[in-house]
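Per reviewer request, we include the raw input and output of the structure prediction for the construct analysed in the revised manuscript.
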Amino acid sequence: MNSTDPTPERLQDAAHAPRAAILMVDDHPANLLALEAILEPLGQELVKATSGEDALKQLLQRDFAVILMDVQMPGLDGFQTAALIKQRERTRTIPIIFLTALSRDAAHVFKGYAHGAVDYLLKPFDPEILRSKVSVFVDLFLKEQQLQRQAALLRQRDREMLERQSALRYRRLTESLPEPMWAARADGALTYANRAWRDYTGHQEGYELSLAAFLQDVHPADRERMRGEWGEAVSMQVQGSANEFRLRRKDGVYRWHLARAVPEHDEHGALVGWLAIATDIDDKRRAEEALGRFKTTLDATLDCVLMFSPDTLTLAYANAGAAKQLNSSVDELVGLSVLEVESAFDETGFRKLLAPLMSGTLPSQTYSTNHRRRDGTEVPVEVVLQYVAEGEGPGRFISVARDITERQRAETALRLASEAKDAFLAAASHELRTPLAAAKGHAHLALLKLGGQTEAGPGKSLQIINRQIDRMAKLVEDLLDISRLQAGRLSLELERFDLSQLVVETRDRMAVLSQTHELKVEVPDHLEGTWDRGRLDQVLTNLLSNAIRYSPEGGQVVVRLVAEGDTGVHLCVKDQGVGIPLEKQRLIFERFGRAHGSKYGGLGLGLTISQGIVEQHGGRIWAESTGKAGDGSTFNVWLPRHTASHAATPTDVSRTPS
């Protein structure tokens, strides 16, 4: 028996083995029948075609292991059909065996091979040889099909493995997400919630998840809205939806979350499910609400509030007060450079103003300037400027500007009134000097006529009148000195003298007037310098008078004078009186400023005049006191050893101490 003959075992195996298709092409049915008989033992599927056109139709429908084709056929002959088969990508590798009984010419055979034939058989041919050759191509085709199936299986297994690995990675990824996340089927039914959701809500793994169960953790006020929006998103297959809602934490606290849901599609674009993730925005929402309230508050204030970037100086915010003050709208202001408002500055100067705020050297800057309106007019303002850092960002500047137009008008009116008052006091003082001098002269003559009889009767009355005239003259002189200080016309008559002697003389004079106080002097034997003797006498008299006035009877007043090298002298007057409250220590050097009101008398001009005289000498005066009764006060005066000659020239010394 030939090895290629089918046996019963082979026929049984062939019944279960995959079959290959063999295409037989011949225009004679008898030839097709003969080929069928020869190839039928192979157990494969035999397909007949009676023309080239019919063969091409069969090739469009299926794959074949081998093609047996007659050369001579009407219409498309074998060569033409083979040429068309080889032009098509899917069929160009199918082996073709030409069968012919007409031409044995070598050129004709070569033409067959040139058209893609793998063999060229001449009729009549040996059936066994034909069957063997076809069997080889069938085996090759079946093995190729087997390899393709095995490759497909391997690809399927790889794909399934990748899908399992991908699912595992996906599960691990979702479990490691810090935010609650859900998965749902295409119909919206929830199927999965990650660890973050379980940790947040307190539910254990294995919790039966459903839309109804999920909504139980949603705030009651948001529940129906979330149910409706989720149902609408699922039914409409919305590509992406975002909703804010309150989700209950395991401790019972509801916090705002932003839920984003996106559809999940397969490789064909079909909807297979939904993925949703919730981000906690509670802190952000509260901050936005606080910012909204803050902006509402800013809009309610009448002041101009501007916020601008330190880099570009561009306005990022303007309140309603700014729009009103600058005669513009908020939209017109936002985006402008702050320099278009701050008309008094160029960029260099303005950045110098900002520098100490950004470095932290100063907490704020307060200054007066003019703001330019959109129409070019200007409004006077007082600006408070602060820098607010914003974490890692560049921060913002906040400018609060108050319209001071009315205040400037009031200050101008007050200044004019003060100047009118000063002018009146100066004029009145000058007018009072003449009658006071006449009264003083007549009182003195009357006392002389009485021959010193001043213990009783008219002499005593004249003595009282004389003292009151002296007191009035002192007040008038003080008012004139204040006027000179205000006008900057206080001049000094400089001379060289012994300041220690002046201190002793003043002490002796004041001791006669107040015999109930101990006046102690600590001075060097000799301390000369160049000053105005009369003016310093006035300063010493004022300081000692105040020390005596504010000290209890029997209290000690100490006057100490020391030299500070060759450059200056330090004079201090210390008492044991009621002291000066801390909040009043700046007030006492102002005109009519009194730390204890009118209780102790005086107009409150002595210290103002003393300060003017000391500063005219190029020195300074200051007070030290704890503010406690019994601790007293110490007034310090520092003077240069030699006053410069230009100090004798009148200058404006109307300022208050710093």
